[in-house]
Structures are given as C-alpha cells and as structure tokens.
Amino acid sequence: xxxxxxxxxxxxxxxGSPMFALEAGETGPALSAWAQTLPKAPALRGxxxxxxxxxxxxxxxxxxxxxQTWHDFGGFPAALYELQYSAPGSPALGQEVLGxxxxxxxxxxxDDKRPFDHGTWVPLMHMFPKADVPVVQVALPMGWGPQEVHxxxxxxxxxxxxxxxxxxxxxxxxxxxxxxxxxxxxxxYVTEFSRWIEAAIVRxxxxxxxxxxxxxxxxxxxxxxxxxFLPLFFALGAAGEAARPTYLSREVMYGMLAMDTxxxx
Length: 265
Known about the structure:
Blueprint: E1 10-14, H1 27-35, E2 46-56, E3 60-62, H2 78-81, H3 91-103, E4 109-111, H4 118-127, E5 135-141, H5 146-155, E6 164-170, H6 176-179, H7 188-202, H8 206-210, H9 212-215, H10 219-222, H11 231-239, E7 245-249, E8 252-253, E9 257-258, E10 261-264
Parallel strand pairs: 1-6, 2-5, 2-6, 3-4
Antiparallel strand pairs: 1-10, 7-10, 8-9
C-alpha cells in the first residue's frame, strides 16, 4: 500500500539554554502543539537536524543506529542530567543525506558513533516526547559561513517531499556573556535584531540575510560568534527561496535569549 506524503515545511528552532528541557516557557508548548499537526509514521520518515553543538572539521552526517543522549553542558541541576532521549537513529536516512550532499558537490563523511547533543534532544523532547521518530544529525562544518550552510540545506530540500522534517536548531540571539549576568528585562537590541531578521525572512530577502553580519542591527552583540545562528541558514536553504515563515514563538528568556521558532514553506 502506498502512502501519500505532503511536502513538509523546514523548521528553525531556538533551543535556548539546556534548561529549556525543564523550563518550557511559551516556546515548548507551542512546539508541542505544532508537532501534533505533523503526519505520523510511516508518512513521517524522520528528522534531519543541524545543531551548533556538533561542529566538525568536514561536513559529517550521523549514521548511528541508536544514539546515546549526551549531556554536553555543566553546572545545571541534577534533574537535567537524568533526562534521556531514546529516539532511534536511521543509518539508511543518514546514507540518503550523504548521497544528496555528494550530488550537490559537498563532500561529506559518515559518523556511526555520534550521540545526540542537547541542541537536538532538548527541542525534540517537546516535539516528539515519545522519542518514536528517527533522527539524523548533520554537523556544522567549522569555518563555514551563511552561504555555505545555506547551500547545505538547499541540497536536502527534496527530503521534505519524502516525509522528512529538516530542522535547524540554534538561537535567534546568543550572547553567553550576557546570559550569565542577565536578568528578566528584555534588552532592546534583542528585539531589534530579531524583528529585522523576521522582516527579511517575510520578504524573502535571502541576500540581506546572508549579509546579516553587516546589515542587521546589533548583529555582533546578538551573536559574538556565528555558530548558534548558522543553523537558520540550513533551514532557509532546505525551505527554498519562495518559502515564508509561520512563527510559533517570539519569546525572550533571561532578558537576552530570543527563542524565535518558526516553520518555513
């Protein structure tokens, strides 16, 4: 029996602090509610996700059959380290991703021992709490910028028509120096940067987004380093240039972590 599959959106999720696993705020319930609208297996074959917490020297794809849950952080409450996310991997889907990247001229390698880092399992706990959807991580290559990461996502655009949810997991703003000394009052630069990005996505202005470092207000303060912003370009590339966003959350946590989360189709 054949299964008709709708073209899935791509998604950008701000995963915030690891405490997002326990302190869901407004973003966690919004993610959970949206995930309920997705097709079920077998129409939903899996998730392909890029997290900034896997940075590799070369493009790499998880082919681990049963990834472990990696608590790749320190100094948080004991309850956080007790959480486990037991979703299966998918070596077959991982090989499919490798093939698409190779076809686009992106030389990539497999990693059959890679665990789930918190940039993956924390948001997925809200989306798929039963951990019953196969997950494949894609590494963020060290030294790559928006253009290269966008091309990586574009190479995987066709997966969306075959039951695969393509996700970028990062943060709309991510200044750790301010996080550790921050409060609850939202810093104005957080809103100004986030809404500039939203406006550019709404009008489909990919060139401006690719040059956000020069054009967006407070870009360097919002992202002293680019790693947590680059997964946005993975999601944009997978969505295609005609895609427009539907926002699930514009929440700000700790006064400086913009949790902007949206689908693209």
